[in-house]
């Protein structure tokens, strides 16, 4: 695949379900035996496996955090919540002030989580980094979504684009900075297609099962529920599931493609994602089917299939020699020193 003079090279994932099953089952059993304590080390083993089996042009990714760092981060979060709850119960006014302080500190926590994840990740031995600001996180990740509510979320695509702009533009690889720039149309395309799926499938499905009659019957307190009515009521949940769950995957597919297309690494290195909504839906739903019929034992296979699908549809177009680029960045980072990344930061367990 070529764009102008640059060739897009695929991301390769070499993990196998059989191999990962060994990692997964040991993580699961030890987490159960230790009442969840081992889950911090289990997370590290899982992330190391997926990173170390993902490569571009033979150069692998890696994950460098330790279970201890993640465990300490979780202890801090749990201890903070316990202390806040106790103080709020004993001294409500002081508790309110403390919770307000936590809310004010949230943008910093978000930036720390991004920074930790970036610094604990490397490709070809070179670390990533994140340099977000307090006001940038507050504005794009907290205030914009709240303000979008007053537009009935019609401006949500602008919010999502701003958030990706903030997170991407503040990441770097070695000393090379990432840059994100995209028109708003791909974000509205993702938004519109997802909403249309929910509206059309949901509307047609509810009409087909006569949902209006069901709601009318339920509104009549004296009405006796019939078996037919109860079946139709259950079908409403099925329609809601079919309308809402695929909507999320449709949105994710279009959004991922838009973000990758608008992202470039300093030096002219470009990216591409070719995820299709139908393909992503197939992998997700077939994975769910496999997990359910196996009572969870095929969960490793589901993880491998999804990761392999995403990798197979992800491409990088280096602008020149990768050897020259990596060598240059190694020299630059060595000059400024980056030993701190091994000890700075802890995993706060934030789902970002």
Q: What is the structural class? A: alpha+beta
How is the main sheet built? 10 strands, antiparallel, barrel
**Largest beta sheet: what is the strand line-up?**
3-4-5-6-7-8-9-10-11-12
Cα-atom radius of gyration:
24 Å
The shape is globular
Number of domains: 2
In short:
With 352 residues, this protein is α+β, with helices and mostly antiparallel strands. It has helices at 17-33, 39-52, 67-90, 92-119, 134-149, 156-169, 185-208, 211-219, 227-261, 277-293, 299-312, 322-336, and strands spanning 2-3, 6-7, 9-13, 54-56, 59-63, 121-123, 126-130, 171-173, 176-180, 263-265, 269-273, 314-317.
Any key phrases for this structure?
alpha+beta; 352 residues; globular; two-stranded antiparallel sheet; single chain; ten-stranded antiparallel β-barrel
Task: Summarize the structure in words.
The protein is an alpha+beta fold and 352 residues long. The protein has twelve helices and twelve strands. A ten-stranded antiparallel barrel has the order 3-4-5-6-7-8-9-10-11-12, surrounded by six helices. A two-stranded antiparallel ribbon has the order 1-2. It starts with a strand and ends in a 16-residue tail after the last helix.
Set out the fold topology.
Blueprint: E1 2-3, E2 6-7, E3 9-13, H1 17-33, H2 39-52, E4 54-56, E5 59-63, H3 67-90, H4 92-119, E6 121-123, E7 126-130, H5 134-149, H6 156-169, E8 171-173, E9 176-180, H7 185-208, H8 211-219, H9 227-261, E10 263-265, E11 269-273, H10 277-293, H11 299-312, E12 314-317, H12 322-336
Antiparallel strand pairs: 1-2, 3-4, 3-12, 4-5, 5-6, 6-7, 7-8, 8-9, 9-10, 10-11, 11-12
Helix pairs in contact: 1-2, 1-11, 2-3, 3-4, 4-5, 5-6, 6-7, 7-9, 8-9, 9-10, 10-11
